[in-house]
Write a structure and sequence with these properties.
This protein has 738 residues and is α/β, with parallel strands linked by helices. Strand 15 (487-491) and strand 16 (500-505) form a beta hairpin.
Length: 738
């Protein structure tokens, strides 16, 4: 895939996108209100003013920004030079925020679907009419069936305030956020169960002697400060170990790359730990002081010899031993990365438990180069809706008595099953805020069936994503460049540097365009119409931010005067954890009849003639969030399918051939892509970038470009401890087109 993003091309494309903004087809009858003259010659940013206070949302890492603004129009984004997080650095997506802001396909007005769900016909309506419909429909559902009859699917910082309203004040327990259930929730729950701390990405890679990655696509996910720590560690001489079936960007920098058989990571981790225990190459003193259930753990993993793991993982036993010896020689200064987006095979809680136990076995907690909880600023307060008396009644997980180590919210599969079957109760209202469930959940037809049986579906979003095709009312949310809705805080990424903390509130860089409204205003207006007007905690987004900052003795104006970021002295995080513990054997897990020690659960192998479908990120897109961005899609227009060169030769495929993908259930991709022939992937697997293949024709830059991998995930696997979906259990074959 060509990467043509030069500074000259970038600025040229920027000028074109900013100067020509046609009407979106979702509001074809409306006046545009868009200035259609060129804003600046390529490379020219004269007579602009710098506006501070931006916090990016092109991905969830949320780098701090400043904007170059002329006559109320944003021309350019840059990293905030005051930032001790990302600094002046921005990735391609962060720079592409300008094109997102002025994307002609963005939602502009409240819309009513006068067609059918999935094949909508949009009619522009007033905010008053839209809110009246939302309030009356949702209230009627709650009055008839109770609060539990509403399901909420939020995502992103804009969705927190409405999620809080529906969950706490309306009282529905049926809330499922993709960023937890399909991303980090399994990881967090496994680490809390094992170490009683949530890991986030808090591994001190900048000061590690060894960095150990299992399928982490660092360098392709492009979280700027995260990568700075990772690259600084490599610059300082850290050895890098990467377990990945694909020769990823991280694998290309590795001292040891293990092209491991998909689904067998836990087997290798158990063999590494067994070898360390049997040879007394672990942190004996640390384990004796802080470990619980170590003897049961040691006995339980004894069967995992190097030879057994080698056979299971299809890698040499000598390589597993080499990794174990490297970790032992450098402990405790090893960064065992917990990963992100870890829902792979439906056995993921056990893999994350194994990573946490390996961290404890090496004593790599609360030390330089290990798992460290940075000390951030104190005093920031939350702004919560009041909790209703019937809050949480009808919790599906509790009623089913399953998934006892679930992340916050309700497992999505339980919500879908209940909504479709009507058992144990009906779910008839759906609020979707910034989450494209068509692409975040497996089994797309099941999601569609759930939506089709609803009495009312409300979507609020920035873009007309695939799921918005199933809305009855579609509301235009402000983008992150037009609002106040989030405060990022923390400490510098190099924890051994000068100790500082930062507080960076998101502040609007420009005024909202068209009739877009922010999440606080929209939610408050719906709340009034549902009869909760007396429960509203704040009148505006600015008031919400002011209340959060108040506890730290700060105001928006003060931080604006300080350049958009408040910096204050911090403290070294090492040795500050007052309560260290490692549950090698978990009595809590055993009580619910889950494996009490990390346990390898094999996954189904590919059927004859098929390969396992793996997916991940391109540096130019955050899954589907940025896929319609005209600058970014120009540089990465499709997602080529990686195929092993030997397999390609057997199939008669050449680099650049056009193919469709067909899965094990006979489901065929709607669209095509091209083949990328490479020795850098195992013969039993193929790989795609996720987020392509948009089906909504209102997304004119991205519709039908590339293949939607989610449409091929029809075999559903559920992680028993957490209820999260495993997303890499489907198999495909390639069919040459033409």
């Amino acid at each position: 895939m060509a990467m043509n993003l030069t500074r000259r091309n970038f600025l040229k494309t920027a000028s074109i996108a900013a100067a020509s903004v046609p009407l979106s087809r979702v509001a074809a009858k409306a006046e545009s209100g868009v200035v259609k003259k060129p804003l600046a010659a390529p490379g020219s940013f004269k007579n602009t003013k710098t506006v501070v206070g931006g916090v990016c949302e092109m991905c969830f890492w949320r780098c701090q920004l400043v904007g170059k603004v002329r006559d109320g129009r944003l021309l350019k984004l840059e990293g905030n030079p005051k930032s001790i997080d990302n600094g002046v650095s921005l990735c391609a997506r962060g720079n592409g925020g300008v094109a997102m802001l002025y994307d002609p396909d963005r939602l502009k007005y409240p819309l009513k679907n006068v067609g059918k769900r999935g094949e909508p016909k949009w009619e522009r309506i007033s905010w008053t009419e839209a809110l009246d419909i939302c309030g009356s429909k949702l209230k009627a559902i709650v009055d008839q069936h109770g609060a539990k009859s509403i399901a909420v699917f939020p995502h992103g910082s804009s969705a927190k305030y409405p999620m809080d309203f529906f969950e706490r004040t309306v009282g529905t327990p049926n809330v499922s956020e993709a960023s937890f259930f399909q991303c980090r929730g399994v990881r967090d729950m496994a680490y809390i169960t094992t170490l009683e701390i949530a890991p986030d990405e808090n591994v001190d890679m900048a000061n590690a002697k060894v960095i150990f990655l299992t399928g982490s696509h660092l360098g392709e996910n492009v979280h700027v400060s995260h990568l700075k720590g990772y690259l600084k560690g490599l610059e300082r001489g850290a050895k890098l170990v990467v377990l990945d079936p694909r020769f990823s960007a991280a694998a290309s920098k590795a001292d040891i790359w293990v092209p491991i058989k998909p689904g067998t990571d836990t087997a290798m981790l158990l063999a590494i730990m067994n070898y360390l225990v049997e040879n007394k190459k672990y942190a004996v003193d640390f384990v004796e002081e802080y470990g619980e259930g170590f003897e049961q753990f040691a006995a339980g993993i004894k069967e995992w010899t190097l030879e057994r793991a080698a056979a299971e993982c299809e890698v040499p036993a000598a390589q597993i031993k080499q990794i174990a010896d490297l970790l032992a020689a450098n402990m405790p200064n090893v960064a065992i990365h917990p990963g992100r987006h870890v829902t792979w095979y439906g056995n993921d809680f056990q893999r994350e438990r194994a990573l946490a136990c390996l961290t404890g076995l090496l004593g790599a907690i609360d030390v330089k180069g290990g798992l460290v909880k940075p000390i951030g600023p104190k005093g920031l307060k939350g702004t919560n809706w009041p909790q209703s008396e019937g809050h949480g009644e009808g919790n599906l997980r509790e009623m089913e008595d399953v998934h006892h180590f679930h992340p916050p919210g309700t497992p999505t599969e339980l919500i879908r099953d209940a909504a479709i079957s009507g058992q144990p109760y009906p779910i008839k209202g759906c609020v979707i805020w910034g989450q494209n469930m068509i692409q975040t959940l497996p089994g797309q037809e099941k999601t569609i069936k759930m939506l089709e049986q609803m009495d009312f579906v409300l979507c609020a979003d920035v873009m007309p994503t695939d799921v918005t095709m199933y809305a009855d009312i579609l509301l235009p949310d402000c983008s992150y460049l037009e609002k106040y809705d989030y405060i990022k805080s923390g400490t510098q990424w190099d924890l051994s540097a000068e100790h500082q903390q930062y507080i960076a509130p998101r502040m609007a860089l420009v005024e909202p365009g068209f009739e877009r409204k922010d999440c606080v205003w929209i939610t408050n207006e719906i709340a009034k119409r549902m009869g909760y007007g007396d429960k509203i905690p704040v009148a505006s987004q600015e008031e919400m931010m002011a209340k959060v900052l108040e506890g730290a003795g700060l105001t928006l104006d003060k931080i604006r005067e300080e350049g958009g970021i408040h910096i204050q002295p911090g403290e070294a995080p090492y040795g500050k954890n007052d309560y260290l513990i490692v549950h090698f054997f978990s009595e809590d897990l055993g009580e619910y009849e889950y494996p009490a020690i990390p346990t390898y659960i094999p996954v189904e192998p590919p059927p004859a003639g098929y390969m396992r479908m793996l997916y991940g990120r391109t540096p130019l897109h955050t899954f589907n969030r940025s896929i319609n961005n005209p600058w970014l899609i120009h540089e990465a227009p499709i997602n080529p399918v990686w195929v092993n060169d030997k397999v390609a030769a057997r199939l008669g495929l050449k680099n650049g051939d056009t193919v469709r993908l067909v899965n094990q259930d006979g489901v065929e991709s709607r669209t095509t892509t091209v083949v990328k022939v490479t020795p850098g992937i195992r013969e039993d697997s193929v790989y795609l970038y996720h987020g392509y293949g948009t089906r909504n024709k209102e997304m004119t830059f991205s519709v039908d470009k590339g293949v939607d991998d989610s449409s091929l995930i029809t075999k559903i696997a559920i992680d028993p401890e957490t209820g999260a979906h495993g997303l890499r259990n489907n198999f495909v074959k390639l069919v040459k087109v033409g």
